[in-house]
Amino acid sequence: MRTTPLFRRHMLIAALALCSLALTYAAHAQASSDSELRETVRAAILADPRSAQMSEADVDSMVAALAGEAEAQGVTSEDIAWRPQDTPGEPASTCGFLCALNEAFGFDGSDLAIPVGLGVSSALLLFLIGSILLHRHGHHPMAGPIGTPVSKSSSEMTYGP
After folding, report:
1. To 10 degrees, the CA torsion angle through 123, 127, 132, 134?
2. Residues 110/115/120/126 CA torsion (nearest 10 deg)
3. CB within 8 A of 129, min separation 6: which ones?
4. Where are the transmembrane segments (predicted)?
5. Regarding beta strands 157-159 and 149-151, do their DSSP bridges make them parallel or antiparallel, or are they unpaired?
């Protein structure tokens, strides 16, 4: 299919019109976001009681400087106006000692596997250290030397060499 010069000219005009509309829309969106950013910065400055002592020219220069820096860093007016939200339906944590232990060690949530795992691994470590001491020295540090039981009486049992 062969195109005529008139068809090409019309397609070029249509493409240029679409590009100009897109650029106009982008410029308008940029201008509205820029003005919205300036309004948000101005509201934040005027919310500070110290700004009552500033002149209008000082406020305008500060708004221009801060809005320019915010725009350069990609900060939007929504970022400036954002405040953390409290969730009113969330109940207080009442899971007890193990949750408090989780929080004390810096773990988040109520997963009990972490403190239980820490407790079991600590018990195994103590058992291993006790077994090593028993094997190397031949006596338990608290109970004394290991040997055959010697009976002095029926109610009292002692261990001897």
Report:
1. 140
2. -170
3. none
4. 112-134
5. antiparallel
